Amino acid sequence: MPTLESRPAIYTTRIIDRREPAPGIVILGLHAPALAADTRPGHFVMAIPPAGVQAAVALGIYEARAERVSLMLVDAGPRTRALAALAPGDSLELLAPLGNGFFLDDLPDHVGIVAGGVGLASVLLAAEDIVRRGKRATLYYGARTARALVDRDLFAAAGCAVECATDDGTFGHHGYVTDLLRIADAPTLLLACGPSPMLRSVSRVAAERGLRAQLSLEETFACGVGACWGCVVPLDRASAQAPKFPEAGADESRTYVHARICKEGPVFWAHELRW
Amino acid sequence: MPTLESRPAIYTTRIIDRREPAPGIVILGLHAPALAADTRPGHFVMAIPPAGVQAAVALGIYEARAERVSLMLVDAGPRTRALAALAPGDSLELLAPLGNGFFLDDLPDHVGIVAGGVGLASVLLAAEDIVRRGKRATLYYGARTARALVDRDLFAAAGCAVECATDDGTFGHHGYVTDLLRIADAPTLLLACGPSPMLRSVSRVAAERGLRAQLSLEETFACGVGACWGCVVPLDRASAQAPKFPEAGADESRTYVHARICKEGPVFWAHELRW
Amino acid sequence: MSGVIATQPNLRVRLGGLDLAYPTLMGSGCYGSGDEYAPFIDLAGIGAVVLKSVTRAPRLGNPTPRLVQTPGGMLNAIGLQNPGIDHYLAHDVPKFASRPCGVIGSVAGFSLDDYAYTTEKLGACDEIDAIELNISCPNVASEGETFSCDPRLTHKVVAAARKATAKTLIVKLSPNVTDIAAIAREAEAAGADALAVINTVRGMAIDVHAWKPRLGNVTGGLSGPAIRPIAVLAVYEVARAVAIPIVGQGGIETLSDALEFILAGATAVSIGTGNFTDPRAPIRIAEGLRSYLAERGLASLADIIGKANAGFKNATEFSGDEG
Amino acid sequence: MSGVIATQPNLRVRLGGLDLAYPTLMGSGCYGSGDEYAPFIDLAGIGAVVLKSVTRAPRLGNPTPRLVQTPGGMLNAIGLQNPGIDHYLAHDVPKFASRPCGVIGSVAGFSLDDYAYTTEKLGACDEIDAIELNISCPNVASEGETFSCDPRLTHKVVAAARKATAKTLIVKLSPNVTDIAAIAREAEAAGADALAVINTVRGMAIDVHAWKPRLGNVTGGLSGPAIRPIAVLAVYEVARAVAIPIVGQGGIETLSDALEFILAGATAVSIGTGNFTDPRAPIRIAEGLRSYLAERGLASLADIIGKANAGFKNATEFSGDEG
Ligand SMILES: Cc1cc2nc3c(=O)[nH]c(=O)nc-3n(C[C@H](O)[C@H](O)[C@H](O)COP(=O)(O)OP(=O)(O)OC[C@H]3O[C@@H](n4cnc5c(N)ncnc54)[C@H](O)[C@@H]3O)c2cc1C
Ligand SMILES: Cc1cc2nc3c(=O)[nH]c(=O)nc-3n(C[C@H](O)[C@H](O)[C@H](O)COP(=O)(O)OP(=O)(O)OC[C@H]3O[C@@H](n4cnc5c(N)ncnc54)[C@H](O)[C@@H]3O)c2cc1C
Ligand SMILES: Cc1cc2nc3c(=O)[nH]c(=O)nc-3n(C[C@H](O)[C@H](O)[C@H](O)COP(=O)(O)O)c2cc1C
Ligand SMILES: Cc1cc2nc3c(=O)[nH]c(=O)nc-3n(C[C@H](O)[C@H](O)[C@H](O)COP(=O)(O)O)c2cc1C
Ligand code: FES
Ligand code: FES
């Protein structure tokens, strides 16, 4: 959990830059000094879409430095599309910063960061933080194809090593990003963010090889602030993150409870999940 | 009815210019040579909105010359707003040209054109046509306020006189545009397009003063091509435009039928309406 | 040659005795007679057009406004404006003879007699391939209770229509009921060959400036993408309750929308309000279905019908005679 | 001074014995306990928060996914996850004491006993100002029939809850019925002080890639702007059937949306899904209502309630003690 309590609020920000590192991917830079200062690695926002589009959408905080915060949008549906159509000068309101963030207080010498697709948006700040704490960081980055591997240079610039895998073999390892973890000197702590199948695979590899892994989970959100119980994951009752909950009578409730990804998470220890 | 049969089709056009003559009003110029050639005064289009926005929307054909057709959008809701956000280079699909258009074959020496608000979009071609036929045309143009009176110069350039009225008295006559018709030498034929209350008022003035009036009606459309019967108006059974319809048993069906504004109209003779 | 043809997925489906080249219908009341769209689309690419509902006596329909846009959908209250069956037979039906797609007549009414009378007359026309029974009207003899809202009344009206025609009989169900599966079972038991699921959902909108209902008829029927989840569930539930084929409808605009209904158990789909966004929707959906099947190496639509519905009972026949 | 105050329109409304400073509620299940929103909005600007429904026994809730976005709305199938009434009374309820707005507890259950038990326990808490009865659950004793879908069951469950508490009792109706007015009349007859209209509409969505329902629970409840026309009509019909006040809900996001419900006959409105677009919605709607009344020179909300509903019967009491 973040060492300092952050103070979520509704931020009215202004878009100051916009780039498209690959087709279907847009990065919006926002002027948001107070939010930048209050953001910890792994935090996310609920972005209020332009008028006429329903439902705020969960987005990782990609960059946060000085006066600027950035968000990465990968075209998935009406909301990411409407937000990606915004231009410098437009304003954007956010509920932020939200979520627990990665646990970075007690790091081994070498930390592996596993990112798939849009999961990249939630791990750059963690990479920076690890390096700042004097540890080694390696990004294991997977995507469908070479073109969808974006911004490797930002990680390199932060002092983080980068290893890639593509489904179609157009860049780096031909296969799953988790294949890259099956090496002798794998980092003993993994931070992972990406699609569920990738996270489950990270979980398996970690279990097999005795590594610890923190997973930043994705699920459809409605509120993003713990109010609707729409985004849960089965979590070991013994986890420090498990909400207090009496046994429900059913057998399984003896071993797990449903924790809210947006509130108790989005970062959980892989070995504590019962999914 | 137009002298030549027009051939409606789905046109894929490209936006070539865009201007905002007043806040909330946008005029889009489209490259559409075949449509420009096939358009008669009073025709309208059903414009297919950008992906994600439902329901095509009815718009008058404002200008039609050589390769270019233009549409006027007045912010009323999601569809006019989505279309107004289009920019040069974007493509726009239209079902067009639709409707009967004004009856311009048998004109008196002086024709009055009454337009309120967005009704202006449906009468410029009529003004041009009247002048081309060697007759005098006067536009009686009403709006809430001076700023909302747009493009008077286009009418003047077409050789049409322009008289204005504003609700707030900021330009021209302070009051209703129909007040301008209560003069001794009013034109004996009126063509009118605008909000319902204005058209009803034109209808009353015409009846009082023995003028003939063609009204281009507005109603919520769904199909715009006569398929859904959503856009009807009660019309005298004896009208040449009345759809063939047996008496329904109810008394009123002896005197009127429901005609489709999009198909039998949008232009009707004021004295034939039973609204 | 025949090898190449054999790899083209088969979109042909059967609804009772009605054989359709495509599983895509134009919904009643939304495409007129189909002719209105001849300038815009090739009707040969449509399975069938379902005509606007016709009644025994002529009807002037409801006062205006009859249409209101709502979020993700629209309300309509047309009030079944139509010239009555006699005028319809004399003036309209003859025009349907040369239609390059199926033609399904739609019958509405206000008593059992009405339905039987109109069904018999319309069913007797060579130009009409099948009859759809729009039973979402109030029964004037039965304190105005809507036919489709009561299992007993549904049974009676379907039985009456069944006696009146030997043509394929499609019964269109209303979603405005506590238990649509119970209604569906009655329609099947009374002799329906297929079910159309769903008609519009009752709703209203209010003019907040004028302080009055926005529709001339006060209430209307909600349609369009807004109701799609309601319609998909209705198809899902009906498909578990009956063995006759289902025509799914309610908010279909795209291939993905159509697939939801087919995977829930629909044999064919109908596009209504989607036409008002883009009349090419049914053509595009048929093309999309063909590619969808081809990409997955599937031979016919039968391979996906009901595949997301574990309790699927629906036992459609397919004509295997086309490539 | 008092002259100035008197010209400020009065937004205060009464639901049974419950006096609310604003006619705007936070809908059950959408705002948690309200505390989750304290960082974002001033709860003193809200009429009341309706808490997430609580049951007698703890419930783990449904498998995931529990949420799906749909056109103009969303589906949810949370499955009433809650810690059960005992844990709730011990750990959660005490936190509600210092709330600057009304606090309405929501009770769900699966038998008459459940409802009576939970209502009594929750109604006895000083922190709870009123009880909302969520009767959209299946009755396990009655072959799983949903309480709110049967007038007889509705009467029984409301009567049981009525006996269990003297606090204001709001009964929340389901739209998934043939005749909502009949259900409303039973709830009123059994002692309800007010009605919440409507709960979610049943629906489902299908994953067209995986060929399976998108919700872990297969079916879910549709909410949001998509259902607004359905909800406005339900309020319109219920307002003609009963004399107790109505809390309108279903797709309210803006002032205009709220006005539709109030003009149809609602005394107050509740914002649920609208919160997920912008949690400030209830505050903005209250401000908007004040301006709307002021612009028209109207003194209180009573001046517009039911004004688009000619057959309006609802006879709400208003507290006239505020400027
Ligand atoms: C903590 C967190 C952080 C996140 N960070 C980011 C981020 O930084 N950047 C980012 O771009 N996203 C991020 N996401 C994901 C994003 O919030 C979701 O993808 C969101 O749903 C996008 O909204 P949308 O309206 O654009 O798409 P939606 O309409 O919500 O669509 C979402 C998905 O559903 C699928 N879908 C829709 N209909 C069907 C159907 N019938 N059958 C099968 N599948 C269907 C779509 O293909 C799509 O993949 C994050 C999510 C979480 C929880
Ligand atoms: C033949 C014809 C020609 C036309 N030509 C043009 C043209 O050239 N240019 C042009 O801009 N328009 C034109 N129109 C009008 C245009 O088609 C309509 O205004 C259309 O509805 C706009 O769609 P929208 O989605 O933008 O607004 P919509 O959402 O359809 O809103 C339409 C109206 O409904 C009102 N409304 C919505 N909700 C409520 C409520 N709860 N209470 C009270 N009122 C409400 C809105 O304020 C608005 O005035 C024409 C119409 C016709 C029939
Ligand atoms: C304007 C309009 C008119 C309709 N008229 C009829 C009708 O006459 N008979 C009928 O059975 N259904 C009628 N319907 C219902 C549609 O056929 C369809 O069942 C319903 O709208 C749901 O599908 P959709 O969302 O694709 O429109 C009408 C729908 C609309 C929108
Ligand atoms: C995620 C979610 C959870 C809900 N949980 C409950 C609940 O526990 N009890 C209840 O009575 N209603 C519940 N509802 C229904 C809402 O309170 C509301 O009645 C309904 O969603 C319609 O209003 P809306 O469109 O404003 O959301 C829930 C709705 C949503 C979207
Ligand atoms: S999204 Fe509402 S609790 Fe997590
Ligand atoms: S809008 Fe459909 S008939 Fe006119």
Helices and strands in order:
The complex is a heterotetramer, with 2 copies of chain A (275 residues) and 2 copies of chain C (323 residues).
Chain A: E1 9-22, E2 25-31, H1 33-38, E3 44-48, E4 57-60, E5 63-65, E6 68-74, H2 78-84, E7 91-98, E8 110-116, H3 124-132, E9 136-143, H4 152-157, E10 161-166, E11 173-174, E12 189-193, H5 196-209, E13 212-216, E14 232-236, E15 256-260, E16 267-269
Parallel strand pairs in A: 8-9, 8-12, 9-10, 10-11, 12-13
Antiparallel strand pairs in A: 1-2, 1-7, 2-6, 3-4, 3-7, 5-6, 13-16, 14-15
Chain C: H1 2-7, E1 13-15, E2 18-20, E3 24-26, E4 48-50, E5 67-70, E6 73-76, H2 85-92, E7 102-107, H3 112-123, E8 130-134, H4 151-164, E9 168-173, H5 180-189, E10 194-197, E11 201-203, E12 206-207, E13 212-213, E14 220-223, H6 228-241, E15 246-249, H7 255-264, E16 268-271, H8 274-277, H9 281-295
Parallel strand pairs in C: 3-4, 3-16, 4-7, 7-8, 8-9, 9-10, 10-15, 15-16
Antiparallel strand pairs in C: 1-2, 5-6, 6-14, 11-14, 12-13
Bound molecules: flavin-adenine dinucleotide (FAD) (2 copies), flavin mononucleotide (2 copies) and FE2/S2 (inorganic) cluster (FES) (2 copies).
One FE2/S2 (inorganic) cluster binds next to loops of chain B.
Can you put this structure into words, describing what you see?
The complex is a heterotetramer, with 2 copies of chain A (275 residues) and 2 copies of chain C (323 residues). By secondary structure, chain A is α/β, with parallel strands linked by helices. Chain A has 5 helices and 16 strands. In chain A, the strands form 3 sheets. Chain A has a 7-stranded antiparallel sheet with strand order 4-3-7-1-2-6-5. In chain A, strands 11-10-9-8-12-13-16 form a 7-stranded mixed sheet. In chain A, 52% of the residues are buried. Helices cover 29% and strands 19% of the residues of chain C. Chain C contains 9 helices and 16 strands. In chain C, a hairpin with a 4-residue loop joins strand 12 and strand 13. The longest helix of chain C has 15 residues. Chains in contact: A-B, A-D, B-C, C-D. At the C-D interface, strand 11, strand 12, strand 13, helix 6 and helix 7 of C face strand 11, strand 12, strand 13, helix 6 and helix 7 of D. The structure holds flavin-adenine dinucleotide (2 copies), flavin mononucleotide (2 copies) and FE2/S2 (inorganic) cluster (2 copies). One FE2/S2 (inorganic) cluster binds next to loops of chain A.
